[in-house]
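Hey team,

Filing this mostly as a record. A colleague (T.K.) asked me to run one chain through the structure pipeline before their review meeting, and I want the input and output archived in the tracker in case anyone asks later how it was produced. No errors, nothing strange. Just documentation.

Input sequence:
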Amino acid sequence: MGKDIRLKILSYPCLALGVIALFLDGFISVAVNNSILYGESLGIGMEVARHFSTYALTFTLLGFLGNTILIP
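Output structure:
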């Protein structure tokens, strides 16, 4: 039989990269949500630290949009 049988996960590079991307996306979400607590532990007031997650999520979204447009 001349069929190509793929048994290894690395035979599907898009799948492997997608799994890595999902893992990193989850990591970023947790890191952004914990940035408020990290700011408080550094002695930054809550009125300033509460904006950290908004800034981080805004720049993450801009990065996603930029990658979508700039990467063909």
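Quick notes for T.K.: The helical segments are 13-41, 46-49, 52-70. The chain has three helices and no strands.
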